[in-house]
Amino acid sequence: MEKKGIGKIALMLALTSGDIDNIKNYYESKNYVIYKGQAGSMDPKKIVAAIETAASREDIIRENYHEEHALYHSIIEALSGYCRGQVMLGEVLRSAGLTFTIVRGPLIEGDRSSGNWIAIVLYGQIGSPRRGFEHEAIGMGIQPI
Do the record's keywords include Acetylation (predicted)? Predict the structure, then answer.
């Protein structure tokens, strides 16, 4: 089995629907910490807050500047990709309903020398707040801790 990077692991988990326990258990045995959740809003601040809260509550990050800073920048990078460069939702009558994954661990599977990194992937629907007027979008952010 080929070694995967942290981004590919986060993408795979975000795109997998249903039970992810086997995948999660495999990568957790390889020194990754993984969380998958959902968020939806017309306010990007609420999506950022949902991800930050999950990362803190699940003990993926600790309360210190370096970890919180890496998390924040990986979220903003992922949100920028998800929103295609302009992090605006409600201001332009656009809503988002998404699945997010948080993965913390080595940059490349099995490579402990690379230190700790954090990857955020957002995948879901974005578009007009009317049903049937949305489409898929994805964004990813990766930062060293």
Answer: no
Do residues 46 and 85 share a domain? Answer: yes
Query: Residue 70's domain spans which residues?
Result: 38-96
* DSSP tag of 60: S
User: How many Cβ atoms are within 10 Å of 106's Cβ, its own excluded?
Assistant: 19
Distance CA 35, CA 38 (A): 10
Out of 3-7, 70-74, 140-144, least confident range: 3-7
The pLDDT tens digits for 91-134 are 545 667 899 999 999 999 988 888 999 999 999 988 766 677 67
The reply to whether 42 falls in a domain is yes
Both structure tokens of 23 = 């995948």
pTM here? 0.90
Q: How many domains does the chain have?
A: 2
| Residue type at position 105 | G
Q: Which tokens belong to 88?
A: 């605006």
Give the integer Cα–Cα distance in Å for 126 and 34.
Answer: 24
> Could you give the CA distance from residue 42 to residue 91 in angstroms, rounded to a whole number?
8
Residues 14 and 30 in one domain: yes
